[in-house]
Automatic annotation (TrEMBL):
The lineage of its organism: Bacteria, Bacillati, Actinomycetota, Actinomycetes, Kitasatosporales. It holds the Pfam family SnoaL_2. Residues 15-96 form the SnoaL-like domain. It comes from Streptomyces montanisoli. This is Nuclear transport factor 2 family protein. It comes from the Bacteria.
Amino acid sequence: MATMISTALDLSAAFDSRLNDGDLPRLMELLADTAVSRTPQGDVLTDRKAIEADLAGMITAKAVLHNTPRVVLEADDVALLLIDWVLEIDTPTGRADLAGTTANIARRDETGSWRLAVLNPGGTN
């Protein structure tokens, strides 16, 4: 059974923890069934399996993510999350340190738990 995420703010720490632990099944629990994701390269992933493969690639590359929420606005069952992030990850040319601000949208599901519906790590870029 999926862990209850009681506030949209809690998604940030849960995402960090599960990615950094390499726990892909529990990481995928944080996503709404119809989630979409924009990759750093600008590709939009609308298929859950494609999003899972993208996250699996980050785990394989030994990603270490640190999220710092900047703004979380909840309105009924929808939330906007602006989150500053720092990511350490293995690349073909060595270990890289990246940073940015994500603009994500979350929604509360039928169980009352918050799930990420739109993942946009590039924010306005």
